[in-house]
UniProtKB/TrEMBL annotation:
<dbReference type="GO" id="GO:0006298">
    <property type="term" value="P:mismatch repair"/>
</dbReference>
<dbReference type="InterPro" id="IPR036397">
    <property type="entry name" value="RNaseH_sf"/>
</dbReference>
<feature type="binding site">
    <location>
        <position position="125"/>
    </location>
    <ligand>
        <name>a divalent metal cation</name>
    </ligand>
</feature>
<dbReference type="InterPro" id="IPR022898">
    <property type="entry name" value="RNase_HII"/>
</dbReference>
<keyword id="KW-0378">Hydrolase</keyword>
<keyword id="KW-0963">Cytoplasm</keyword>
<dbReference type="InterPro" id="IPR024567">
    <property type="entry name" value="RNase_HII/HIII_dom"/>
</dbReference>
<keyword id="KW-0255">Endonuclease</keyword>
<keyword id="KW-0479">Metal-binding</keyword>
<dbReference type="InterPro" id="IPR012337">
    <property type="entry name" value="RNaseH-like_sf"/>
</dbReference>
<dbReference type="GO" id="GO:0004523">
    <property type="term" value="F:RNA-DNA hybrid ribonuclease activity"/>
</dbReference>
<dbReference type="GO" id="GO:0003723">
    <property type="term" value="F:RNA binding"/>
</dbReference>
<comment type="similarity">
    <text>Belongs to the RNase HII family.</text>
</comment>
<keyword id="KW-0464">Manganese</keyword>
<dbReference type="GO" id="GO:0032299">
    <property type="term" value="C:ribonuclease H2 complex"/>
</dbReference>
<keyword id="KW-0540">Nuclease</keyword>
<dbReference type="GO" id="GO:0046872">
    <property type="term" value="F:metal ion binding"/>
</dbReference>
Amino acid sequence: MPVVLPTFQVETAMLAAGSSCIIAIDEVGRGALAGPVTVGVAVVDARTGVMPEGLRDSKLLSEPRREAMAPLASSWVARFAVGEATAAEIDEIGIVASLGVAGRRAISDLLSAGADVSGATVLLDGSHDWLTPALLWPLPVRVRPKADRDCAAVAAASVIAKVHRDTVMRGWHEQYPHYEWAGNKGYGSATHLAAIAEHGPSDLHRRTWLRAPA
């Protein structure tokens, strides 16, 4: 099956329809057993140039290619930010609400950095708007399934978020090496599950997601 390449067509049409800029959003870490859920935000506008060669949804890139692409994606977009919600927050309020919290934090960072998002439209990967209930500011949200595959700005957000989260999990691996997070990034690999069975969950695990009681 041929790989579908992202384009800037959807974003261009949204800008032509009157949006001052597009806030492209994707999340990573939704299905992990440990670590945060992370939301990447990438802002593009009419001045945004040609996308970096090789840009893809983060899931379609190897780890070395993602690492090389992240700085290119970050410099291509007008602004970017990353927000997180912790494992403890996921346990307390659930994964969907935590996605909204992480997205709100990312957009708050944009605003704190001086981004002008008046007249912006959010382009959110997926079919469910988990962002609007968490926002403190009214922003129109357009959901689009497979936007991380098809839309260049969302692909950039996915790469930025994935590389950020992978870096976080490699850092936590130094403190908790037996879970092998440097390799599995908190997902439910066989070695990760075996380590949980042997050592129990850490304070970075989503304890409500584990079958065995904590």
